[in-house]
Each structure stands twice: as structure tokens, then as C-alpha cells.
Amino acid sequence: MSLLDIIIPYRTVVINQSIAEKSAVSIDAFGLNTEDFVYLVDGYKTVLASIFLRNAKEDLKNIETSKEILGSFPEFAAACVACGCRQRDAQEYIRQLPFPIQIELLSTIFELTFPEGLKKSLEKLMPTILQLLKK
């Protein structure tokens, strides 16, 4: 076995559009990796702390978490989607996408990042996340 045998999980999200010449677009979404977390901590430390502390106590489903984050912290949500789609330079464009598209992408990325659910994953990751937030 090799580390290269480990498959990096992703999901192809099909976005249906109301434009005839390009009615559907497929986008690959990945879970957030270590570099993504460091990037997000550097730009959104206070937001991350708020989200992690709240969700460590509540067992919200990923779609509910996605809606809450998008509604409260749209810039952070766009940054998460940009990282999860491996297109950080598209962050401003993502903010212009319709709300349902952003929700679908963000919830897919959260499901891939936290496959056991946010609360259970945070219990395991909390010491590491706290160290990042202290930087």
C-alpha cells in the first residue's frame, strides 16, 4: 500500500441553470484540507471560533449549519466554497451566486470535510483547531 492509494474524497455537484446555452454545470467539491483551514483561520479567525464553539455544543445537520453560516457570515461561506472547489481566486464570484447554489456547494463541502457530522468531528479536532485559533 502507498499513500497514493488513498482516494481524496470529492463529489461532483451538478448546478442547473436557467440559461439555455449552458443549462447544467458540473463542479467537483472536496473536503477542506489542512491548508484550507490555515487559510480560513488567517482570514476569519473570529468567525471560525464562533462557528466551532457553537457547533461543538449543538448537533446541527450540515445543511442547517450551511444555511446558518451563509446567512450570518457570507464572506466566510464564499471562502469555504472557494477552498472546497479548489478555486480560491473565485471567492468574490461565489458571493454573487444564487443562495440555493451556495447552500448546495457549502453543504457538500461540509459533508466531505466532516463525514461523521460536525459535532462528532469537532470533538476530535478541537485541540488542533484551538491551537490554530491561538496563532
Automatic annotation (TrEMBL):
- InterPro entries attached to this UniProt entry: Pre_tape_measure
Q: What is this protein called?
A: Uncharacterized protein
Classification lineage: Bacteria, Pseudomonadati, Pseudomonadota, Gammaproteobacteria, Pseudomonadales
